[in-house]
Structures are given as C-alpha cells and as structure tokens.
Design a protein that fits this description.
- By secondary structure, the chain is of the alpha+beta class.
- The protein has 2 domains: 182 residues, Fructose-1,6-Bisphosphatase, subunit A, domain 1 (Fructose-1,6-Bisphosphatase, Chain A, domain 1, 2-Layer Sandwich); 141 residues, D-Maltodextrin-Binding Protein, domain 2 (3-Layer(aba) Sandwich).
- 31% of the residues lie in helices and 22% in strands.
- The protein is built from 9 helices and 15 strands.
- It has an 8-stranded mixed β-sheet, with helices on both faces. Strands 12-11-13-15-14 form a 5-stranded mixed β-sheet, sandwiched between helices. It has a two-stranded antiparallel ribbon with strand order 1-2.
- Strand 3 and strand 4 form a beta hairpin.
- Helix 1 runs antiparallel to helix 2 and helix 2 runs antiparallel to helix 3.
- The longest helix is centred in the first third of the chain and has 26 residues.
- The radius of gyration is 20 Å and the shape is globular.
- The chain binds 2,6-di-O-phosphono-beta-D-fructofuranose (FDP) and zinc ion.
- Homotetramer.
- InterPro entries: FBPase_C_dom, FBPase_class-1, FBPase_N, FBPtase.
- Belongs to the FBPase class 1 family.
- It catalyses: beta-D-fructose 1,6-bisphosphate + H2O = beta-D-fructose 6-phosphate + phosphate.
Length: 345
C-alpha cells in the first residue's frame, strides 16, 4: 500500500527539529489546499470574476485569488513561521517573532484559467530565518533558492496533487477523499533527459530576442530542421500544470524576457514561482535556469522580483543556454535555418 504523506514526512525528518517544523508547515498547507479545492469544486458564481483590486505587481485580482490568500495566511499563522510573503501582498507579513522559518507563496497560480475550469495551483517556498533577518524582514526574501528547506506546489485539477521536495528527491502525493488525506503517488520522480515536448507562449514570438526565436524555429522545423526530429507543443498557461506534465513525461518550459513593456525579465516571479519550481525540478534530475544561470543561484533583490525561466529535461535546458550564451552553437544549425523563420515564412 502507498504510504501516507504523514509517514513520508516522518521518515524525511527523522529527529531533526528544523525539518519537523518544515513538515508541520507542509501539513498545514495541505489542510488549506483541501479547503481551497472544495471551494473550487463547489464552483459558484464569481470565483473567476474580478475582485476589484490589483496585487503587488499590478495584476487584476480575481475573487479566488483573494479567497486563496486568506486560506493560506490562516494556515501560515498556525505554522512555525516568522514571516509570510505572498504574491497578493505588497510586503512580508510578520508572524511568530521567534520562529525559524519564512514562507513565500503564490496562493493561486494560473488565475486566468479559473473561469475556464483548467487546472490551477498554489506554489510555496520555505526558507530559513537568520537572526540578521529579524531586524530587517525585507532581506529574508532575498535568500537564494538553493537555501530553500522545502518547496512545492498543489494542483487543483482533475485530481488534487501535492508535488514537493525537502531536498531529498521530489515526491508526488494525491489527495484521497476516502482516506481523508494525501497518499504517495510517486516516490521519487525523475525527469527524462531527452525532451519531446516544449512549452512557450508563442504569441510573443515577435517580442523575443533572436536566440529564443532561433531555438523555437529549430524545434518547429522538426525532422526537416537541424534537430532532425519532431517536437510536440503544449502550453496550459498555469505554471503548475505545465511543470507537472514535464515532471511526468519530460519536456522543456520557457518564459523568457521579451521586448514588451515590463517583460524584460519575463512574467514569472523568482521567490514564489521560479525558486520552488526549480527546487522540485532539480531534485527530480532536471534543470532550471534563467536562460543561462541556475535559478537556485540567483541573488534575489526582493519578494516580487521577476526572472526569465527555462526548466525541464536537463539536456534541453542546456541546449537553450548554448543558444543564448554561445553564438557558435548556432553553427549546429544549417545555413538554411539560420536565416529563415517558420513564423515569418
Ligand atoms: P497567471 O498570471 O494566470 O497566474 O503566475 C503567472 C502565470 O499565470 C503562470 O501560471 C503561467 O505560466 C503564465 O502566467 C502564463 O502567462 P501568459 O498569460 O503570458 O501565457
Ligand atoms: Zn503564479
């Protein structure tokens, strides 16, 4: 029989008190995710409607964004956390003064999919708190992703899933209503090395830099291009769902910076999107970069920083980096494909 999340967390933590606090936080998040899943499943008018406000980044908030933020802040308050930073709040909130952990969270990922009954999620990142952070909470959310003690995401889809890592593999749990909790679906997930699928919002093609255009051109050229094989494309538009597909069957995801106003570093946020996704991907044997530099090595400047994000099957992510960093890699392409774009045919 598959083991329960509780049993798993117990064996991950042993008698390490800090890990036990991370586990307690994850358990509380699970309770909140089950509540939110029930709210989503019950539907009701208005969940996908505009709430009338904007979040810290100026995005229009949906009713469900606000509900999710409330549900997760309640879970955070019940957890051993000193600080809570949310996509939906301008700055970090102080919780228990002496606690040793901080959490950054995207309470409702994929907002634009709420009203279309497409999978959405919650992404979280748990960081340590040092004494120096207590005087100046702003710096608690400038720690590198490599310092995360635990990270993961929930998917509210056909199933309620938890994908999480505490630095020892990446594990998937499914909510079982009959059991009343989460049970293990996949003990230690491994992303296949070779990608057959890519995920990018291709409507931004004209705004991308040349290396990204060239890379996508070569994928699209398929068996007739320099890659000499065909690729499939998928773009859910909910980071959690695109990430879980890649964890399950490989592939590569790109949200690069582009030429649109405000998109120099893409759309995704470092502390509560890229870092936790990168942590899960890397601990599943994949790779996550901002194009060239590992996401987990980036030095954040604040809670709401953005970063370009490329993640997935290791070899494919490394190939993207060659297109960006090493123009000589473009020599791998035939002269024909160096000049033409299939989108510009
Ligand atoms: P959303 O704004 O709908 O919450 O979190 C940002 C995000 O969704 C990701 O989930 C998703 O990958 C991306 O934005 C989609 O961006 P585009 O609408 O630009 O494709
Ligand atoms: Zn998001």
């Amino acid at each position: 029989m598959a083991s329960s999340l509780d049993a798993h967390l117990g064996s991950e933590c042993g008698d390490d008190p800090l890990k036990q606090e991370v586990a307690e936080t994850i358990r509380n998040l699970c309770g909140a995710a089950i509540k939110l899943r029930n709210t989503i499943a019950a539907g009701g008018e208005g969940l996908g409607q505009a709430h009338g406000g904007t979040n810290a980044d100026g995005d229009i908030q949906k009713e469900l964004d606000v509900v999710a933020d409330k549900v997760f802040i309640k879970a955070a308050k019940a957890s051993p956390l000193a600080f809570f930073g949310s996509e939906e709040q301008e700055s970090a909130v102080r919780l228990k003064p002496d606690a040793r952990l901080a959490m950054a969270i995207d309470p409702l990922d994929g907002s634009s999919n709420i009203s279309t009954n497409v999978s959405i999620g919650t992404i979280f990142s748990i960081l340590p708190v040092e004494e120096a952070h207590r005087a100046n909470p702003d710096i608690v959310f400038t720690q590198k992703g490599s310092r995360q003690l635990g990270a993961g995401f929930f998917i509210y889809g056909p199933q309620l899933l938890l994908v999480m890592s505490m630095g020892n593999g990446t594990h998937v749990f499914i909510f079982s209503p009959s059991f009343g909790g989460f049970i293990e679906l996949s003990s230690s997930i491994v992303i296949v090395d070779k990608a057959k699928e890519f995920a990018i919002n291709a409507s931004n093609y004209r705004h991308w830099d040349q290396p990204i255009r060239s890379y996508v051109d070569d994928l699209l050229a398929g068996s007739e291009g320099p890659r000499e094989r065909d690729f499939n494309m998928r773009w859910v538009g909910s980071l959690v769902a695109d990430c879980y597909r890649i964890l399950s069957r490989g592939g590569v995801f790109l949200y690069p910076g582009d030429g649109r106003k405000g998109y120099a570093k893409g759309r995704l946020r470092l502390m509560y999107e890229a870092n936790p996704i990168a942590f899960c991907v890397e601990h599943a044997g994949g790779k996550a970069t901002d194009g060239t530099t590992p996401i987990l090595d980036l030095e954040p400047k604040g809670l709401h920083d953005r970063t370009p994000l490329v993640f997935g099957s290791k070899r494919e992510v490394e190939r993207v980096a060659r297109y960006i960093a090493d123009p000589s890699a473009l020599a791998e392409r035939s002269p024909l494909f160096g000049k033409r774009s299939l989108f510009r045919a």
